[in-house]
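Problem: given the chain below (679 residues), write out its structure.
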Amino acid sequence: MAERAKTVRNIGIMAHIDAGKTTTSERILFYTNKSHRIGEVDEGTATMDWMTQEQDRGITIVSAATTCYWDDVQINIIDTPGHVDFTAEVERSLRVLDGAVGVFCAVGGVEPQSETVWRQADRYHVPRIAYINKMDRIGADFFAAVTDIREKFGANPLPLSIPLGAESDYEGNIDLIKMQEVHWDLDPEGQELRFSDIREEHQDLANEWREKLIDGLSAFSDEITELYLEGEDIPEELIHKTLRQVTMAQQAVPVLVGSSLKNKGVQPVLDAVVRYLPAPEDLNDVTAIQVKKDTEVALKRNDKEHLSALVFKIQHDREMGVLCYIRVYSGVLKAGTAVYNANARKRERVNRLLRMHANHHEQITELRAGDIGVAIGMKIARTGETLASEGHPVVLDTMEFPEPVISVAIEPKTMSDQDKLKTALENLQKEDPTFTVRENDETGQLIISGMGELHLDVLVTRVLEEYKVEANVGNPQVTYRETVTTTKEHRESYERTLAGKDHAATVTIRVEPQERGAGNSFESDLSTGKLPQNFQEAVRRGVEASFPSGIVMGYPCVDVKATLVDAQWQETTATEIAFETAAALGFDSACREAAPTLLEPVMDVDLMCPAEQVGDVISNLSQRGGQVESMESRPSFELVKAKAPLVSMFGYTTTLRSLTQGRGSFSMEFSHFAEKSSR
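Solution.
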């Protein structure tokens, strides 16, 4: 059983789809002796893409976790998906990481999904290093990609190496700290690095970028500034120390370069991870809420502190059952002991603990502060829940996930498949927080919802193939919302005799529209003298229970403010049931009178296509109700940013391929709900 190394790095590899994340991860596993041969995404042999669908489609769908060692440092790596439909996988991974490697394509630079993951990393204050990959591709431009990072992210990129040549002439790098050339030509798998003096023709470029690096660092170090002004040599150790400080403070982003596919440039990325990204103990104390007192507490990130651990992912394994991926922030989690689920307020037992290597694993006895691992045996735990010690229950910040916007109906082909289908959907729902299942009250059909066509396609394929369920699947449908457009008041009386007791209440409810995205709210204008607090709470429950059931079409209600403006009651007949029911009926009637309208999901669309076809693409997008917001020219394509209704984007992949002779691509992300237009 492998012992934990002295220091740990918890890192994620994140990027736009096809920037080369998984290819880079495969090289990392090979160079750290975790795999005996290099896996390739294109051949379907990538270790990190272990799921059958990932190998078939050549994309990453679930975050694979693995552990490797470099320079006696344990590196826990999570390879996150690049496709926008799997944003929840990226979100929950970044929540538990201490650092990240952003992989960028030297041809595409900062692509749309790179911006999304970079913003997610900003939200969780994750320090980053950048790796500009694919220097061997036609159109590769390292310096343009660095400018892109500066302009698009407002970041401060500091290249630590620059490429020698580009495209088919890419031969190696110039290390700007050692001021030497680095080549990977001693063996076909690039394991041995060859250092040599910088050739005369590259000397000027090397000096120029070394100057930029030292100038960039001198803004953060008086010591470097003094040595620089005195014309003294700046020690390598001082450069590394300053780079570590500015990276951890997120004041700068070290930039490395290479071509993972050609086995060039990956070892310096591992060196940078160890040198510049933080170990768990380097970070600030963990903030949590103490359950008993409802107060904020700071927990030290060490083994002596009380236990706090976050469940960031659930996965079902045929043989082992439920796998709970856990990040331990403080204390020690031991196998064979009971822990307290602070969110569910229940005790759970951890039977076994594993350290994962993609889909392989090794058994361990404990997970200590800073570790990432898998617990087996827990029944209740859900994504985002906190495990703590029963004597000191705390809750860590939970994760927020976007709402699903696209649905399909699914029904079993035979009665014997019914239970299998429900079990499969329940398991997938536990695994994926952006996947929801509900039953249509009128038709009795099961409706499943997700983030996009690809997301649902992957989930449906898993139901059919992984869980071996025979089912019929409908066409994708848009998930709409309803709201009101005017202000209306409605008075509602409720009188019933139930089990020999009279129940009666009269309420007046006012509904009014709120700004888009403001959400629903409830207020009471009445004092407790006019209506007792318990009856006001009953009215609140009645109104809030009505929000999800919609107004006319049954879609959830959004951006509506409901106010209790008046109430009549008699002591002998007033009950909470009467007020709750009167409020629900009154809210429903008021909304029907307040000119209800249907809202549809509008998507942010990022299109990439060759310049010669951009006119046809924009014209087609406009016919679909899309509005172009901006255009950017890149070396090999045009980037069009637009907003378009989701309903008109079904099947767009095929249209775009035919318009661009297969060279165009696009990604979509939910933007907002807007009033449904008549197209």
